[in-house]
């Protein structure tokens, strides 16, 4: 995996670690300032659901981080491609079901990572 791919994969992982933290640990505090489309009275009611979503975001982040530590280049790229694809698909789905903004925050960085990996092996 080339340096540009590593930087993008790391950036996408950081995004998902941040979302994990918001959803699992700061849902009733800091998340209110980030997820402005959710009515304030819903944060306490949805805390457990948000923590569950945060766990999934954590799995995506840790999968991407894992790909950065794999010494075999082909295996590292394949793992990164898998997790970036998951991030991309989740972002597209969320853009249709929640907010178009998610596409730009989640799917665009993932597709940039996918493209950098694909072009690095050509």
Describe, in plain words, how this protein is organized in 3D:
There is one protein chain. The chain has one domain. It is 82% helix and 0% strand. The protein has six helices and no strands. The mean pLDDT is 96.
Task: Give a nutshell description of this structure.
This protein has 122 residues and is an all-alpha fold. It has one domain (3-30, 39-121). It has helices at 3-25, 31-34, 42-45, 47-69, 73-97, 101-121.
Beta-strand proportion? under 5%
For this structure, the quaternary state is single chain
How many domain units?
1
Largest sheet: number of strands, sense, barrel closure: none
Query: In angstroms, what is the radius of gyration?
Result: 15 Å
Q: What helical percentage do the residues reach?
A: over 70%
Please give the structural blueprint.
Elements: H1 3-25, H2 31-34, H3 42-45, H4 47-69, H5 73-97, H6 101-121
Helix pairs in contact: 1-4, 1-6, 4-5, 5-6
Features:
122 residues; mainly alpha; 6 helices; 82% helix; elongated
């Amino acid at each position: 995996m080339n340096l540009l791919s590593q930087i993008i994969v790391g950036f996408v992982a950081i995004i998902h670690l941040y979302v994990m933290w918001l959803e699992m640990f700061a849902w009733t505090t800091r998340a209110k300032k980030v997820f402005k489309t959710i009515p304030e009275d819903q944060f306490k009611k949805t805390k457990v659901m948000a923590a569950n979503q945060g766990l999934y975001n954590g799995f995506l982040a840790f999968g991407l981080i894992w790909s950065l530590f794999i010494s075999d280049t082909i295996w590292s790229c394949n793992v990164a491609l898998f997790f970036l694809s998951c991030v991309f698909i989740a972002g597209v789905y969320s853009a249709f079901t929640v907010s178009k903004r998610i596409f730009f925050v989640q799917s665009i960085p993932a597709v940039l990572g996918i493209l950098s990996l694909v072009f690095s092996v050509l």
